[in-house]
Amino acid sequence: MCTLLVLHRCFPEAPLVIAANRDEAHDRPAEGPALRSLRGRMLLAPRDLREGGTWLGWNDVGMFAALTNRPTRAPDPQRRSRGHLVADVLAETSAKEAMEHLVGLERDLHNPCNVFVADALAAYTIVLDGEARVRELAPGAHVIGNADPNDRSHPKVGRLMSELEDVAEGGAEGVTEQLAHVLRMHGPQDDTQSPLEATCIHAGAYGTRSSTMFVRGRTRQEDRLLYANGAPCTTDYEDMTPFLGELDRAAGKTQEIR
């Protein structure tokens, strides 16, 4: 996944709002969000069918985690798939424990990536690129892409920061409609711009494969989950909120992530 937008404690009635586009090769098979079990804990997550990991998900104690890849000139194919990191941290019981798990990983176990974890108490970004770099997030708008989190000097991150801050100023009402507009944008087009600078990417064999929006309410009964199984500029969002209720009620009888 390449674009993760976070509104952390911007609204009293919606303390965490997530908007995310997953960008990947079109021929890499995947399936949408489903309930899965992992080491005795229930998760709600999509799945990468090539390596068996995921790019975002929720666990049964209310924690959310996601990752974005960081570019590298020579990714090592022998390293463990980064998609397993999300399932690993969702096996923990809090965002703090998840952050500590990531900090304690063997160096260079995975190719470089950014990881975001959040629960009702805290939110963190963890940059895994050699030594782990941790930041606990203050309330506000945050962009985690393929560069350092919130790095305004990166053109795409800087543009998305400005757009997300505008959304934050508008209040929680209608926030998903505003975020859907941001996720569908193809960005300023000129002869020098790479198609990868768009938010919704169309670059031949590579592009935006799915899109997710999540709103955490003041209670778990107020949470909302929307998912588009395709580029959001051409695919409608499906209301998958009932899966969150099923996660609360799940008793360990679903498919295990391997």
3D architecture notes:
The protein contains 5 helices and 15 strands. The longest helix has 15 residues, at 155-169. The protein has a single domain (3-256), classed as 4-Layer Sandwich (Penicillin V Acylase, Chain A). It is α+β, with helices and mostly antiparallel strands. Helix 1 packs across helix 2. It starts with a strand and ends with a strand. 19% of the residues lie in helices and 36% in strands. Strand 7 and strand 8 (123-129) form a beta hairpin.
How are the SSEs ordered, and which strands pair?
Blueprint lengths: L2 E9 L2 E12 L4 E9 L2 E8 L7 E4 L4 E6 L14 H7 L4 H9 L9 E6 L4 E7 L1 E6 L3 E5 L10 H15 L5 H10 L17 E2 L2 E11 L7 E5 L9 E2 L1 H9 L5 E2 L2
Parallel strand pairs: 3-15
Antiparallel strand pairs: 1-2, 1-10, 2-12, 3-4, 4-5, 5-6, 6-7, 7-8, 8-9, 11-12, 12-13, 13-14
Helix pairs in contact: 1-2, 3-4
